[in-house]
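> call design_seq(struct)
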C-alpha cells in the first residue's frame, strides 16, 4: 500500500508546481502595490534638473496633493504619456518630476521637445531616489497627499483611460 502512494508523489509534485507557475505567470506585475503605500515619501536631498545649484528635499511634497512622475529621456513610454501629464497639469494638479538615470542635457532636451508639466524636476542621475522608491523602470507615478504620504502608485505608461478611470478619482479622493 505504501509503495503505491509513493508512486503518486512525483505526479502530485508536478501538479503543485504547475499550479504555482500558472498562478505566478498569470499575474500582471504592473498592478503590484508599492511597498511604500501609506508611508511617508522617502527623505532625499537633490538638485533640480533645471538648476544644479537649487537643492530640494521631501518638504517639497507637503502642503498639497502632488503627482510625482518618474521619467527619463531614454524612456519611449515617457514620451507617450506626456500628453496625459500636460493635461493633468492644465487641470491644476501639481506635478513634480524625477528625471531618472539621465543627463541634464538629455533631460532638458526632452522637456523642450515634449513640454514640461512639472513644477519642479528632481535630478536623479544615479537612480538613488528611484531606488528608495522601489522604482524598477520608468515611467512610474506616485500620488502623494498634502502630508507627504504616498497614497497611490501606478507602474508604467499612464493611458488616457488610466487618467480618467483611476488617477483622477484617486486625486479627488485625497484632496
Amino acid at each position: 500500500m505504501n509503495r503505491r502512494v509513493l508512486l503518486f508523489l512525483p505526479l502530485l509534485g508536478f501538479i503543485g508546481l504547475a499550479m504555482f507557475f500558472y498562478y505566478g505567470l498569470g499575474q500582471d506585475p504592473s498592478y503590484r502595490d508599492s511597498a511604500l503605500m501609506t508611508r511617508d515619501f522617502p527623505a532625499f536631498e537633490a538638485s533640480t534638473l533645471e538648476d544644479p545649484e537649487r537643492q530640494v528635499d521631501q518638504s517639497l511634497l507637503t502642503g498639497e496633493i502632488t503627482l510625482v512622475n518618474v521619467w527619463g529621456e531614454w524612456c519611449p513610454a515617457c514620451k507617450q504619456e506626456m500628453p496625459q501629464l500636460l493635461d493633468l497639469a492644465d487641470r491644476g494638479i501639481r506635478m513634480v518630476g524625477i528625471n531618472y538615470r539621465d543627463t541634464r542635457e538629455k533631460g532638458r532636451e526632452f522637456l523642450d521637445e515634449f513640454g514640461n508639466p512639472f513644477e519642479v524636476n528632481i535630478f536623479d542621475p544615479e537612480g538613488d531616489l528611484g531606488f528608495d522608491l522601489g522604482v524598477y523602470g520608468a515611467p512610474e507615478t506616485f500620488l502623494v497627499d498634502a502630508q507627504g504620504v504616498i497614497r497611490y502608485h501606478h507602474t508604467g505608461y499612464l493611458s488616457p483611460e488610466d487618467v480618467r478611470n483611476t488617477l483622477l478619482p484617486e486625486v479627488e479622493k485625497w484632496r
